[in-house]
Amino acid sequence: MNSLRERFRPPLDTFSGYPSKPLEESEFVIFGVPLDVTHTWMGGTKHGPEVIRYTSKNIESYSLAAGADIEEAKIHDLGDLRLPRALQKTLQSIRAATSEIRSMKKIPLILGGEHTIALGAAPLQIDRLAILQFDAHMDLRDHYEGRKVSHTTFMRRIAEKIDPQNIVQIGVRAISREERQFAEKAGILCVKASELSCSSTESIAERLNERLDSCEAVYLSIDIDVLDPAFAPAVGNPEAAGITPQHAIQLIRSLIDRRLVGVDLVEVSARRRLRGEPYFDADAIRTGVVASRILFETILALDQRAKPTARKIRRASE
Ligand SMILES: [Mn+2]
């Protein structure tokens, strides 16, 4: 356990602002990965974990939807992973930390950082693992700007290691022709952002749960750029016509259950760090506020799932 701690920088603020529960008693183990190396437009994801911790301690901690308070959730915040220089080493370090957390029967929850970290965090060795990805992008390019491993190719690498039919992508709207063809051929289930404005979240959740039913474990990866830039402007690659925070929260509440083996929330970025309060620019604060809310609702929704088999579609807007 000590060797696990040594790999992290203790956080200045803990996630949610409440003191961490002891590691042994916790259900979620949170850590940041301030990775910001393969960006193709705007950087700033190295500030992501700090933005999320800062906003999460300032928003209301009670959830109306869950009828519970994040203060009561069993969360331990390890701080930020110390990053080696090489990207492959970073991915190995994420893999080692997440498997250690999972071996303690706890759920790792990662604050990004760029999306590439999901390649290290998702337990791809698990048979019938599903990846539930909220994203404006598919990230399925074979390579990009000479890189085989980056924020825009990592899902292709994942699709080479698990059954692509167990990949579900929600909120997609910014893709290349190559990605579209690959996804269709591979049988990836894609819910376009536009579908969420004309179908109910209940009917979409039902369709997705049918696909997820045969899976043994689910890894949830949330790229905050899945939201419209009006809600989440501080991201590396903003794309118009995105989904709303309500859509994201309702779907997450309807889809997750005790098969969850990991969560990441990535791509929150900040252009600059300011002196004094507020610590970050207004776009970063706005993005952090919605990211923090989504994480609170995810954690509290899982707390309500009593049995591993409870996969009934739930009305999320109660
Ligand atoms: Mn994205």
* Order of H and E elements: HEEHEEEHEHEHEHEHHEHEH
Q: Judging from the principal axes of the Cα atoms, what is the shape?
A: globular
- As residue ranges, the low-confidence spans are 307-318
Average residue pLDDT: 93
Treating each run of at least 4 consecutive H or I residues as one helix, how many helices? 10
Small ligands present: manganese (II) ion
Helix-residue proportion:
25-40%
Biggest sheet strand line-up: 1-5-2-6-11-10-7-8-9
Question: What would you call the quaternary organization?
Answer: single chain
- What is the β-strand count? 11
Cα radius of gyration in angstroms: 18 Å
Distance between the termini: 40 Å
Structural category is alpha/beta
Q: Give a quick account of the main beta sheet: strands, pairing sense, barrel closure.
A: 9 strands, mixed
Query: Beta-strand level of the residues, as a percent range?
Result: 15-25%
What's the short version?
The chain has 318 residues and is of the alpha/beta class. It has ten helices and eleven strands.
Walk me through this protein's architecture.
The protein has 318 residues and is α/β, with parallel strands linked by helices. It has helices at residues 2-6, 48-56, 87-103, 118-121, 154-159, 177-186, 193-198, 201-212, 245-255, 282-303, and strands spanning 8-9, 28-33, 62-63, 68-69, 75-81, 107-112, 129-134, 167-172, 189-192, 217-223, 260-266. The strands form 2 sheets. A 9-stranded mixed β-sheet has the order 1-5-2-6-11-10-7-8-9, with helices on both faces. Strands 3-4 form a two-stranded antiparallel ribbon. Helix 6 links the parallel strand 8 and strand 9 (189-192). Residues 307-318 have low confidence and may be disordered. Manganese (II) ion (MN) binds at residues 135-137, 223, 225. The site of manganese (II) ion has 5 residues, from loops.
